[in-house]
Specification:
By secondary structure, the protein is mostly helical. It contains 5 helices and no strands. The mean pLDDT is 77.
Length: 107
């Protein structure tokens, strides 16, 4: 998101939270609150050793976050036909395949 904002909209945003808020304002993402939840869960994973919390975050990734990432990728691909964005799409698929293999979803 940050890279897209920096390169395409010439906006200077620095913190992850400000990137999410600006992406919402620019209609790159539809659900700003959910993206803030993604950020919160991401921050929790750095310091969480509790199995229940880890399972909750895993469920959020599988059931909510993957769909949001897919929407975001589609939005930036729609906005830009730049080859770099196409490469980003395929890199994202590789990441999803390695992170959420238990979903059974085809991405």
């Amino acid at each position: 998101m940050k890279k897209y904002l920096d390169e395409n909209l010439v906006l200077e945003v620095y913190s992850p939270r400000s990137v999410i808020k600006e992406s919402y304002k620019q209609d790159l993402i539809e659900n700003g609150e959910l993206w803030l939840d993604i950020l919160e869960d991401r921050n929790l994973t750095s310091h969480t050793y509790d199995e229940n919390t880890a399972n909750r975050i895993k469920d959020n990734i599988v059931n909510k976050y993957v769909l949001e990432f897919e929407k975001f990728i589609k939005n930036i691909l729609y906005e830009s036909s730049d080859l770099g964005m196409i490469v980003t799409k395929y890199m994202f698929r590789i990441i999803l395949i390695s992170i959420v293999p238990w979903t059974g979803r085809v991405v």
